[in-house]
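Let's practice the habit of predicting before peeking. Look at the sequence and jot down your guess about where helices and strands might fall. Then scroll down.
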Amino acid sequence: MFKGVWPRRQSAPSVEDNNNTATTKSNHPTNSSPPSPSTKELSTSANYLNKAAASGDNPVSGSKDSEECSLKRKFEQDDLDSIKSPGRLARKRIRDAKHRARSELVPGDLFCMQRYYSLFDLEQFKTNFTNSLDKLPPEVTKEMLESRPYVIERVDGRTLTEKEFIERYEKPKIPVVFTHLIDDWPGFKENNKWSCLAWLDRKFRNQKFKCGEDDSGCSVKIKMKYYLQYMKHTLDDSPLYVFDSNYGEHCKRRKLLKDYSVPHLFREDLFQHAGESKRPPYRWFVMGPPRSGTGIHIDPLATSAWNSLIRGAKRWCLLPNDVPKHLIKPLQTDNCAKQKDEAVTWFRYVHPRVTSPTWPAKWRPIEFVQLPGETVFVPGGWWHVVLNLDISVAMTQNYCNTGNFRHVWLKTARGRPRFGHKWYRALKKLGRHDLIAMAHEVSKNNPEHIPNTEVDLSSSDSSSDTSSASSDDSAASFEVVEPEKPATNSKSSSSSSSSSQETPVTAKDEISAPKEGASGTPPAVGSNSNVNSANDVSSSDTSDDDSGVEEQDKKRRKIGQSS
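Done guessing? Here is the structure:
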């Protein structure tokens, strides 16, 4: 164990100390079960499969036999042991990254203050939920079950076409877990790729991945070799979380693109017609240790998201978008002000409330555990929070297709009018008259959402850019505001969202509620991840902003009048 991740005022406890501490009685609300194991005994998805098989519960279609689980467990343990302990330089790089990304925890060295590494039992989160209609409380009536789902459905993705998926799940906004969608991914089917930490260490050893943002909104990056060492040994309450959206633009990191492909159910991507450089960030390579994750959020711009897990296990909790925001956020009395937007904090303080008998049945959450090879579909507008139960590696992406275009267009036209105009022209040039008619119908009371296509495109671009500069700034936080309102761009809104999607999370955009959100700016999600996606979008908004030029013109006019 290295001292770099520990508070300077106390020495790092040994494994024996951890065991002794864990055996003592605690008032922690979630430590009724035995404490989580030490680093070398980290639980894996194979453990969960073994328990499920022994109890007769089969949450995954085609569960593996115990022999295969044992082989997988041995492979993951050997793989973890191959990552060496950090040296002096690694400890310094890790400490610098933590201090930049989580500066609010630096005074007093609060990274391990709650001691979740010993008190927070992640094993219980693999089983302490209801995912059966027969076990739902009687308060959930038949009418409620017809209005929305209360348990997750697992479906073999190979049996559906894209059109069937849109009609059955996308349009009615029903979350679902698909199996066998990524069986042909090189990054998944080969153990020597994404599921192998040693392969990631060897292939991307000196490549930097984003793991957070500093107080100025700039990306905090860390080399893969240092992050793997940190991930193996960290005891932080809410560890740093790799949530990188720019890997596709980097000459070496873009090799990740060769190891996966978008599942056939999600290949319609309407944002791509606006241009790769203009569209908001939409895909993320995510990786993190136990206790990391993305806090409660809604994805930005009402987009939907898919999340495919390569390694590990993720605990999901989804709530409908009509739940009041203040009810699913930590309270001031929860004593978690420094880490109130983290996934582990949400599961400690908020989760007991939303699953208690006094919680309204109409807002009852959907809970489940995602295992390797599964792809989670999160419709736009659903609140969701994700907690990593093991060392996890995943790929997630937000998108807009025909099924959710109506909602996405409304959010985009309001929150990012300049991009909306460019997107509208691209769809019209493409001949998508069905989508153009839908855009006119949605924006019939807001004619400013539709660009004047009679004017020359170049002049229309410049005029719309200038007139919507302030709106773009406010869209950086993904709050749906009218274009004429003043700009707001703060790091606080960023840190509340990010990542998805599990999605990033920064500020989140609620579809019909007052929050920022889903891919629409998740408060990012949980640990540092969500914080990242919204700021990425904000940077793309301001990169071609003409508001500075407009201010300079005003100053020149004043000088001319005075002279």
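How did you do? The radius of gyration is 23 Å.
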